Amino acid sequence: MDADVIIVGAGPTGLMLANELRTAGVRPLLLERQQRLRETPRANGLGGRILELLHYRGMLADLHAASTDPHPVPRFPFGNVHLDFSGLADPPMRAVQIPQPRVERLLEERAGELGATIRRGHEVVGVRQDEEGVYVEVRCADGTYGATARYLVACDGSRSRVRDMVGIPFPGSTCSEVNRLGQVKPAEGAGWRDDGDLDVPGLGRLRAGFTRTDNGVVGFGWLTSEVLLISTTETTETTETTEDKGTTYDDDVPMTLAELQDSIRRVLGVDLPLREPLRLSRYQYQDRQAERYREGRVLLAGDAAHQFPATGVALNAGMLDAVNLAWKLAAEVHGWAPPGLLDTYHSERHAAGARTLLHTRAQAALRRGHDPAAEALRELFKELCGDEAPLRRIGTLVAGGDIRHPSPDADEHALTGAFAPDLALDTGHGASSVAELMRPARPVFLDLADRPELRTIVEGWAQVDIHRADTDDRPADALLIRPDAHVAWAAPVGASSGSLLPTLRRALNAWFGDPRTSEEPHHQPTTGRVPATPTQ
Q1: pLDDT tens digits, one per residue of 129-155
Q2: Whole-angstrom Cα distance, residue 126 to residue 431?
């Protein structure tokens, strides 16, 4: 094989997957049809669970350093209503403000340092597979060539050619509203008020946040002291009189500042003077999910697997797809995967995608209505979110913090299937944490109560790192943690060995296969050739 895994698409999902695979000693070949990184940001930040995972991989500090605002006020739009977590000491949803091109650049630099092969300007135009592997036909400036791998992962976006070539249905709908977004500066005539609002000629005060009219919604906020993030969403009726019916939009046809201003005029009825656009884009929300995330040796991740009818979640969901998938592919490549492990990628991440569709569809419902009933719904929703309990519940949902993977054992601990908490640890040799232990992206057994009989069982699985540590108010006597930082098994505090040993063995077998007393050659970084381009 030319590579262990071929990744099609070098967006954040594909690049995150390449990072995770290299960390696990797997050889990825990443093929991207675009010649260079896209400079227009399709997203302005990361938020929710992916930030915790990046912290566990030791990458969060670099993101903060590259961020335009590493700790923004935790106040986020939800269907044209704002969720304000600023009054909570421990908000369930946090974000880092960083344009998508910077995220991609950081991920690409790290993947290169780890030894990943990335080829830009190389488009996959054919795919076939058999029981042994996957073959792709690749077109580049110098001609075409073929490449083979054990597996292929399509991270090539909502219009995924790979998904179509292997016949995976992508049911759903495209929302009729056209949305336009700009990062711009206000021009002379639009006065910035000290409270963050704008004075607009012919209109008066335009409040930060969302302003709704019969023709749609204009929303804006300040990215910096001089730069506005402003968006428009026009009603279906307005769209049908100004757009061609059935037209779909994306960034392949550049938007102009005049187009954004025309849309603002249609919604507000007045001109808003703007200048110096830093980003301009238009899009229509899609509501889609692939019927399955796997077809033989071909798997889907990111936008190729799901599209959500709201902003702020697709980037995070795609990168979490990559983390869930990478260690399972690595287990297959290294030969210790138990039967059915790779199939859990579909079952776990398809369920997570459906959960994300749930709240983004709710956002679409809150966003669309313009009659008194819709206004009443939004007012009631805002009133409910004024109370801490519902605010926390919705924030946890948006962050992806309520995802809990099913366990093969019925009598499971409350932590089983959940994301492992970042406990502060005393190892006897200094301070550490769960985040520190998860940086190598390997399975971890963490003994928090000095239970040697449990450690002895785990010693049969050489692919699992064993650690003994103490922590304040331990939530369990021991934790078995998957490489994606989800808990595979947990021992209740004080539980007897007789009850724990059988369930621990079952969890080890279910997630990490048969006992393996030697790692060789299964966790040594693999080496090998990569497919040559026609000019090599």
Answers
A1: 999 999 999 999 999 999 999 999 999
A2: 51
Lateral strand order in the sheet of 478-481: 465-468, 444-447, 478-481, 487-491
CA atoms within 13 A on the CB side of 500: 24
CB 248 within 8 A of CB 239: no
pLDDT of residue 519: 58
Contact 138, 285 (CB under 8 A): no
The structure tokens listed for 116 are 């990943």
Q: State how far the Cα of 164 lies from the Cα of 159, in Å rounded to an integer.
A: 8
What pTM did the predictor assign? 0.90
503: phi then psi, degrees, rounded to nearest 5: -70, -35
CB within 8 Å of 111: residues ≥ 6 apart: 15, 18, 19, 22, 30, 118
Q: Can you spell out the DSSP letters for 255-286? A: --HHHHHHHHHHHHSS---EEEEEEEEEE--E
Q: Pairing mode, if any, of strands 28-32 and 3-8? A: parallel
User: Which tens digit of pLDDT belongs to each residue from 256-313?
Assistant: 999 999 999 999 999 999 999 988 888 888 999 999 999 999 999 999 999 999 988 9
Position of tokens 């949305």?
179
**Is the Cβ–Cβ distance between 299 and 154 less than 8 Å?**
yes
Could you tell me how far CA 409 lies from the centroid of its own chain? Answer: 28
Query: Is-contact 75 86, C-beta < 8 A?
Result: yes
